[in-house]
Amino acid sequence: MFRNLSYKVQKRITIISFLILPVLFLIVFTFIPAMNMIWYSFTDWNGYSLTKRFIGFANYKRIFTNPANFKPLFNSLYYFFGGLIQIAIAFYFAVVLNSKVFAKNVFKGLFFFPYLINSVAISLIFVFFFQPQGTLDAVLKLFGITGTPQWLGNPHIANYSLAATSIWRYFGYNFIIFLGAIQSIPDDIIEAAVLDGASAWQRTRYITIPSVKNIIKLNLILNISGAISVFEIPYIMTSGANGTNTFVIQTVNTAFTLQHVGLASAMAVVVLIIVSVTTILSNVLIKGDD
């Protein structure tokens, strides 16, 4: 029966058949939980009670009338600026390793390897790296540097340590994305620039950067949303202590420690709105520069 159908109908049925399962998973594991979260945000549910009392916008009022709730958002700036540094370094090495460099495939693997490791494992590795008398202190001691601070215990330094961990964790992702974009640039354009006497910097400035500007914009947008919603690294390494609390960690603690699931759901909705609005505005502003 299927063979008797036209090619166009067969193609449509095939596409729909392959999409049914992913769409079903998306609905069950994303859309339905999101709708439930929005509903919970209008209740005083504690997470285990069978009853959920509707309280309207009381949770949202509680969030916006207490400035302390948004204080952890300022810690996102450490990850945002760390992300900018990460993007710049990743782009630099992508440009370098796109040229003829000794053992460049080895370096590509080394740079991308951290992204393949689970965030929990990386966080635990860096806990030992930053702990007193740990790896970092031992290396600094070899150079005669002693009296080092508590990298995760000092509120003035802890966020820098966490941001550095985040840079190392996600550097490989940006590096591979940039490298793929740079390698897609036609060779004849580069060869023509070389014949015209363009230096490496001129080729990068006038050919490479304009050719991958959309990838740069994408990474900038992802950096903004990632900085706002950062969770795994600070939660595992410091549990939000010593001034490293983030809005998402605060939301999780509100839900599972204080058992205010309704309030935590409202906070999660606020984060979702902030990330969505920031991403849309960033996209609009970036497109406006084209």
UniProtKB/TrEMBL annotation:
<feature type="domain" description="ABC transmembrane type-1">
    <location>
        <begin position="72"/>
        <end position="282"/>
    </location>
</feature>
<protein>
    <submittedName>
        <fullName>Sugar ABC transporter permease</fullName>
    </submittedName>
</protein>
<keyword id="KW-0812">Transmembrane</keyword>
<feature type="transmembrane region" description="Helical">
    <location>
        <begin position="109"/>
        <end position="130"/>
    </location>
</feature>
<keyword id="KW-0813">Transport</keyword>
<dbReference type="Pfam" id="PF00528">
    <property type="entry name" value="BPD_transp_1"/>
</dbReference>
<dbReference type="GO" id="GO:0005886">
    <property type="term" value="C:plasma membrane"/>
</dbReference>
<keyword id="KW-1003">Cell membrane</keyword>
<comment type="similarity">
    <text>Belongs to the binding-protein-dependent transport system permease family.</text>
</comment>
<dbReference type="InterPro" id="IPR035906">
    <property type="entry name" value="MetI-like_sf"/>
</dbReference>
<keyword id="KW-0472">Membrane</keyword>
<dbReference type="GO" id="GO:0055085">
    <property type="term" value="P:transmembrane transport"/>
</dbReference>
<feature type="transmembrane region" description="Helical">
    <location>
        <begin position="77"/>
        <end position="97"/>
    </location>
</feature>
<dbReference type="InterPro" id="IPR000515">
    <property type="entry name" value="MetI-like"/>
</dbReference>
<feature type="transmembrane region" description="Helical">
    <location>
        <begin position="12"/>
        <end position="40"/>
    </location>
</feature>
<feature type="transmembrane region" description="Helical">
    <location>
        <begin position="263"/>
        <end position="286"/>
    </location>
</feature>
<keyword id="KW-1133">Transmembrane helix</keyword>
